Every structure is written in C-alpha cells, then in structure tokens.
Amino acid sequence: MSVSVMVVDDHPIWRDGVARDLAERGFDVVATAGDAASAVRIARAVRPDVVLMDLNLGESTGVEATTMITGSLTGTRVLVLSASGEHDDVLEAVKAGASGYLVKSASAEELVEAVNRTAAGDAVFTAGLAGLVLGEYRRMAATPDEDKPQLTDRETEVLRLVAKGLTARQIATRLVISHRTVENHVQSTLRKLQLHNRVELARYAIEHGLDVEPEGT
C-alpha cells in the first residue's frame, strides 16, 4: 500500500507543487491545507500516515498544529518541511511531536526518502540537525533530579491509571472526581514532563517504575 500524505503550507503554489510531485512519485496525497486550524481538522478526518508540515501558517503556527495532530492521532507522524533551519525552530517542532525536520532546500529525492522513512517510524533530519536534537535531549537527561518538574500526588495517581489503560471517565469514577478534572491533570502532567500524548505518558510511567500492570492480570 502507498504511503498516505497530507501537505500543509500557506503558499498555494508551493503546496500544490509538493503535493503534485509526491503524487507523481507514488504517494497517496489525501489532502492539503493552508492554515493550522484546517490542518488539524482535516488530518483528524483523513488520518494520513504522514503530515508534511510548514511552520509559518499565518495567524497560527505549524508547531501548534503539530502538537494537536500528534496528540490526537497516534498513527499519524509529522515531518516538518520548513524554510527555517534555526535551532529554536527545530527544537520546538520536535518537542511538539514532529518525527523529523527537513529544510525546503532539500532535493526531491531527499524529500521522497524522508517521507518514506517517516512513515516507517524513523526520525529524519536535514544533515546537521540530528546532532542538535540529540545534544538537547542529552542535556535534558543530564539535568539533576531536583531541577526536574515534580508531579503532585494526584497527578502521579492519574498518570499511573492512564498507563494502566483506563479512560478519563474510568479514572474519574475510580478517584471520585470529575471527568474534566482528570483531563486537567493529564494536560498538566503532559506540560510538566514535556510529553505529547497518553502513549508517551504510559512509556514514562513504565520507565520510572510506576505500578502499571493492567488490572486483573
């Protein structure tokens, strides 16, 4: 099966050209969008394998769209295709959940390879940017524990139940709190830990030794 792709860029000529080039090379271009709000709405409807995302999208940004897409569509990966190679832009995109970052000066062959590798689950970066991202995450990992964000007891309990696979409503019933309160705790925990979705929360809980064995096992 061909890889399904959605192209997001606020310049119609560039957007249509990239979409046409990818379609001619065998990709299934299922949608295009010119702004962040449309990108999120359409991506949730068509659920592409890869979203090719620009960062400058007018009033909103590709980083915001990436956060919302990766947070709600676990089967969709975002590959940023931007004119900017600034370090801050790269790190913001990765922290928002992007799987890779390619500058627009990349060749057509590099773009095709990047989309295929992104769909396969690889992290893909323009030469020189991978080392930047790796260095940042090494720096974060070396931060002393006392400087890392601390979760409250309630946030820790909600995290443990999320990792067990309980839904927000099941957690609310278990802890005798409202569904909205559970969602607030989840979002607060995501922000503190700089994670992007419940899958990453579960991985964090496992890696940090919380009791996440599914109930009834």
Brief characterization of the structure:
This protein has 217 residues and is an alpha/beta fold.
Backbone shape:
elongated
Order of helices and strands: EHEHEEEHEHEHEHHHHH
In terms of per-residue confidence, which ranges show pLDDT below 50 for 5 or more consecutive residues?
A: none
What is the radius of gyration?
19 Å
Strand order of the largest sheet: 2-1-3-6-7-8
- Approximate strand percentage: 5-15%
- What is the share of helical residues? 40-55%
- Main β-sheet: number of strands, strand sense, barrel status? 6 strands, parallel
Organism: Saccharothrix mutabilis subsp. mutabilis
Keywords: DNA-binding, Phosphoprotein
Protein name: Response regulator transcription factor
Pfam families: GerE (PF00196), Response_reg (PF00072)
Task: Report what the structure shows.
- By secondary structure, the protein is an alpha/beta fold.
- 53% of the residues lie in helices and 14% in strands.
- The chain is built from 10 helices and 8 strands.
- The protein has helices at 12-24, 36-46, 62-72, 87-95, 108-119, 129-141, 153-164, 168-175, 179-193, 198-207; strands at 4-8, 28-33, 50-53, 56-57, 60-61, 77-82, 100-103, 124-125.
- The strands form 2 sheets. It has a 6-stranded parallel beta sheet, with helices on both faces. Strands 4-5 form a two-stranded antiparallel ribbon.
- A hairpin with a 2-residue loop joins β4 and β5.
- The mean pLDDT is 83.
